[in-house]
Design brief:
heterodimer, A: 324 residues, alpha/beta, D-Maltodextrin-Binding Protein, domain 2, 2 domains, six-stranded mixed sheet, five-stranded mixed sheet, 13 helices, disordered N terminus, B: 498 residues, two-stranded antiparallel sheet, 23 helices, 2 strands, globular
């Protein structure tokens, strides 16, 4: 021992460092991988166009800075998200393929269009929420859900929604069920429901607040309720359905998920990046103008939200005869 | 006045002009390559705008948009493959022109017509924004259905010799678009349990397949057997101003068609350009020349599909609601910079509105310059031997098909649809009506069903609308006239046969 110390103190020290490093590496090959993650570009599959795609691009752009590698938002739209989910599911679980997911994983599964459900993916983090809003024309006399419901009992209302079986349709069904009224659902593609409302062909429309914002500011449309637990920042004067005495709490969450089997430390690295981005003032500012509510949740809690929501959506779709 | 000066000074600053130029070049390049459209270019350019000032950011996006609207004609004319769906109608006469050795003439005419259409719609947007938005709002599902049905009646005109073959082709086109999840009910049709088929057949993939693949197959089948006539390219006036403005009345009418259709949500460039093409043929003194390379057949669709741009921006600016995916991306780009388009923007940020008008005007000037320089280069493509060009086209189409939805499935789809297209061509079934079916089918079906949902299943909704009735009458007239003239033709030709 003494001889060794005499031999070369500095050399020995160097040697131990190397051995220690090797030991650490062997002991935790997983975390070694995490230290190296990310080494290449991360691909974020985006399932829909519109404002959610813009948010995804803003998120991807900011995550690139956080992670030090490019994060590319790649659009794989079609079939209500089924195409994109199927693609990400088929990728190797390395963390380099993630999906900008939403409640659509539940609607698309329960409508029978894919044969796998949310359990195929590891939640990474919730990024935020979008809260559906019910709008009528400003020249109508309805200011509250009660007034709308009373009018709907004398005349069957036409309500513009997105496609049948979409999350928007489910929310409106839940809301009108609570109001105790029966309406005609008019499905529109490509987000034309607000135009149709302005054109007077439907009596109300349930869509995302950002789609109504310009017309609300110009006093052409009036939003009479939002369906979340809290009011939405873009429309602070609009009361929630709960405030008006109707217990509906349905919002669309958006976040990131990775294929099942992605190492937990890789997930953690991505989660941290998302947390930092969502906390940044720049992201909050952009979100506000796009009508998106940043609401970070870590992976574990996000997973619980997805599971609870999936059960609720499955029940609702069964009730509506949309479950296949 | 102050807002006007402020808006102009920002829009004409070197940074903004550079952004427009960069956008225009990106848009031109993307749309000239089949499969890479301005939608793809807009999505790719978007992240660059995040770090920019609002006006240059807007300039970049609008530059891509207007550049992308014109570039589609380049490949449509030179290769016979539409670079964007809006350029599909341009192929019908543009490509025959190139085959006759008039490629640079056709390209020049298309650029002039495009710029005219684009600037016309800009002027309409500046002067009649409210009024056009008002008209567009009156187009509900019933009216759009009638309009599109009228568009479909033009199949008769595209059916070459046999009306029956034309109808078969049109129905095939309609049926292809039925595949996939329908947008209203989310029900899978003809998907055979495949997730890939649920997304349906993308219109652009089908267009590339139908225009490019049969042509490439023919090239190789004929290779060494048929002596291909050498195309002597006459580089005449690259900018045939006088010849094009000789058709000023047609240009104007086509631009009106484009602007109005662009403003109606749920329609768009492909529909506008086919309607303009058909209306040019119908009012032409020599309708029989259409399809063989007439100037009118190029300027009408090109003026219309570029007028769509200004038209499509009308609902965005006046209502704050995008009517199609491309303007949705532009709206997103404006929102990121805290600019909420809509009626209020005119009161609060008039300078932004003026800057926006200026940016669009500048973009057309830049397009004219770039194309002027580019045409002499573009036409050299025609000197490449056909079999070499064929391989290049196939590779480009493969890449293009993939990029549209980032899906390798679409590359296979292109191959399958393309081979089917070749088979149809061999059976002498014209492809143009198939294309019309592809372009109009989804809108036709969706608007019809939405109209019936609105009316709770009663067809009354169509009869109550004056606009819809007017288009139905036009449709009947078109069909009646066509049937009558083909009957008369068969009667007069019979003695000759006997």
């Amino acid at each position: 021992m003494a001889m060794l110390t005499d031999l070369n103190r500095a050399g020995w020290r160097r040697c131990t460092t190397v051995i220690a490093a090797v030991l650490v590496t062997i002991a935790s090959s997983g975390s070694a991988f995490a230290q190296q993650f990310p080494r290449q570009a991360v691909e974020m599959t985006v399932l829909f166009g519109g404002s959610s795609a813009t948010i995804a691009q803003v998120l991807a752009d900011a995550m690139s800075t956080e992670l030090g590698v490019p994060v590319a938002a790649v659009s794989r739209t079609g079939a209500g998200g089924a195409v994109g989910y199927a693609y990400v599911k088929s990728r190797r679980p390395t963390g380099y393929d993630i999906v900008w997911n939403s409640n659509s994983i539940s609607t698309v599964f329960h409508s029978g269009n894919i044969d796998f459900d949310y359990r195929t993916f590891e939640p990474v983090a919730r990024v935020g929420m979008e809260v559906p809003a019910l709008a009528v024309r400003a020249d109508s006399s309805w200011r509250t859900l009660d007034e709308f419901a009373a009018a709907a009992r004398t005349k069957r209302m036409r309500v513009g929604i997105s496609g049948r079986g979409s999350f928007i349709h489910l929310v409106s069904a839940a809301l009108f069920d609570k109001l105790g009224i029966d309406v005609i659902y008019v499905p529109y593609g490509q987000g034309t429901a607000p135009t149709e409302l302005l054109g007077g062909r439907v009596d109300a429309a349930l869509q995302w607040p950002s789609q109504f914002k310009a017309q609300v500011d110009a006093r052409q449309l009036r939003v009479i309720a939002v369906t979340g637990r809290d009011r939405v920042p873009v429309l602070p004067d609009v009361p929630t359905a709960i405030e008006q005495g109707y217990d509906v709490d349905m919002v669309m969450w958006r976040g990131l998920a990775a294929p099942m089997g992605t190492p937990s430390d890789v997930i953690a690295r991505l989660e941290t990046a998302v947390r930092r981005v969502v906390a940044s003032p720049r992201f909050r500012e952009v979100s506000a103008t796009l009508g998106f509510e940043p609401a970070f949740l870590p992976a574990s809690e996000f997973g619980r939200v997805i599971a609870t929501d999936d059960a609720a959506i499955g029940r609702l779709m069964a009730q509506l005869g949309l479950k296949r | 006045m102050e807002a006007l000066l402020q808006g102009m000074s920002v829009a004409l600053s070197p940074g903004t002009v550079a952004a427009i130029a960069a956008g225009v070049v990106a848009g031109l390049v993307f749309s000239a390559i089949p499969g890479l459209t301005f939608s793809v270019a807009l999505a790719l350019v978007m992240p660059f705008t995040f770090g920019m000032e609002p006006i240059p950011a807007m300039a970049l996006l609008l530059g891509v948009y207007s550049g992308g609207m014109t570039g589609g004609a380049v490949s449509a004319i030179l290769l016979g493959i539409p670079g964007t769906p809006s350029a599909a109608a341009t192929v019908l006469d543009g490509h025959p022109m190139a085959r006759k050795g008039d490629a640079s003439f056709a390209l020049g005419a298309s650029v002039i017509a495009s710029a005219f259409g684009g600037l016309f719609s800009l002027v309409v947007m500046m002067l009649l924004l409210e009024q056009v938005a008002e008209v567009a709002l009156r187009f509900g599902p019933a009216e759009i259905f009638a309009l599109v049905l009228f568009g479909l009646s033009t199949i008769c005109g595209l059916a070459d010799r046999s009306l029956i073959r034309g109808l078969i082709a049109g129905v095939l086109g309609l049926m292809v678009m039925v595949i996939g999840l329908d947008e209203l009910d989310g029900v899978g049709r003809l998907t055979f349990g495949s997730v890939q088929l649920q997304q349906g057949v993308n219109m652009l993939v089908a267009l590339i397949a139908l225009f490019a693949v049969p042509q490439v197959i023919s090239t190789f089948v004929d290779h060494g057997r048929v002596e291909r006539p050498v195309i002597a390219e006459r580089v005449r006036a690259v900018f045939p101003w006088r010849r094009v403005f000789g058709h000023w009345w047609l240009l104007l009418r086509s631009s009106v068609i484009g602007t109005v259709i662009g403003a109606i949500p749920g329609t768009g460039g492909p529909i506008a350009s086919f309607l303009a093409y058909d209306h040019a043929r119908r009012f032409s003194r020599r309708p029989a020349d259409f399809g063989t390379g007439t100037l009118e057949g190029v300027v009408a669709p090109e003026a219309a599909n570029n007028a769509v741009m200004g038209g499509a921006l009308i609902p965005v600016l006046s209502l704050g609601i995008p009517g199609d995916p491309a303007t949705a991306i532009i709206l997103g780009g404006l929102l990121v910079h805290g600019l909420q388009p809509g009626p209020l923007l005119f009161q609060t940020r008039l300078d932004v509105i003026y800057a926006l008008y200026m940016v669009i005007a500048v973009s057309w000037v830049i397009i004219l310059f770039i194309q002027l320089a580019g045409i002499r280069v573009f036409v050299r493509v025609l000197r490449v031997p056909p079999h070499v060009l064929g391989v290049c086209i196939l590779v480009l189409c493969g890449i293009g098909s993939y990029v549209i939805r980032n899906s390798i499935f679409d590359v296979y789809l292109m191959a399958v649809v393309g081979v089917l297209g070749y088979a149809l061509q061999r059976m002498r079934i014209p492809l143009a009506p198939v294309v019309l079916g592809l372009v109009l089918g989804p809108t036709l079906e969706q608007q019809y069903r939405t109209a019936l949902i609105l009316s709770e299943g009663s067809h009354q909704i169509f009869f109550e609308s004056g606009v819809a009735m007017a288009f139905f009458a036009l449709t009947l007239l078109t069909i009646g006239w066509q049937v009558w003239s083909s009957l008369r033709a068969s009667v007069t030709s019979k003695p000759g046969v006997a």
